[in-house]
Amino acid sequence: MSDTIEDRLKETSATCLETYTAWSKNKKDTSAYQSLHSAVHELRKVASRLEIELASSERESSPRKNIKPPQHKTTKAPVSNDADDGAQESSNDRPRQRRTRKPKAASGGAE
Predict the structure, then answer these.
(1) Which helix (H) or strand (E) holds 31?
(2) Which of 15, 19, 63, 93 could form a disulfide with 89 if both were Cys (CB 3.0 to 4.6 A apart)?
(3) Alpha carbon separation from 89 to 20, 65, 76, 84, 98 (Å, rounded)
């Protein structure tokens, strides 16, 4: 697969250089602009394929790393001492209590 990436990289970089040279001579030429834009897009696609190839080879060559859980997931929540039964609960273990809403005042009518 690396041969095709190498070939594509050579071709697209040469094409990009040619279209850039043509565009830089006449920057108002819309067809030269479009050709350069297309060549740059193709070059990005080849670069992306190369990055994928690098990442996969890195994954294959290095031993598997253990991913640590985020610190906010591993730290304990503060302990609350106001539990009714004396057992200590974290604030995440208790159900949320909803506040009661005050009734809306009636709109001002004639007295």
Answers:
(1) helix 30-61
(2) 93
(3) 67, 35, 11, 10, 19
Residue 27 token pair: 């920057």
Residue with tokens 């273990």: 93
Backbone angles phi, psi at 80, to 5 degrees: -100, 135
Q: Which residue has the higher pLDDT, 11 or 111?
A: 11
Question: What's the pTM?
Answer: 0.52
User: ∠46-43-6 over CA atoms, to 5°?
Assistant: 45
Q: Locate 19 and state its tokens.
A: 């279209």
Contact 50, 5 (CB under 8 A): yes
> What is the dihedral sign for C-alpha 101, 102, 103, 104?
negative
Q: What is the pLDDT of residues 73-91, one digit of tens each?
A: 777 776 666 555 555 555 5
In contact, 15 and 45? CB cutoff 8 Å: no
User: What's the length of the chain?
Assistant: 111
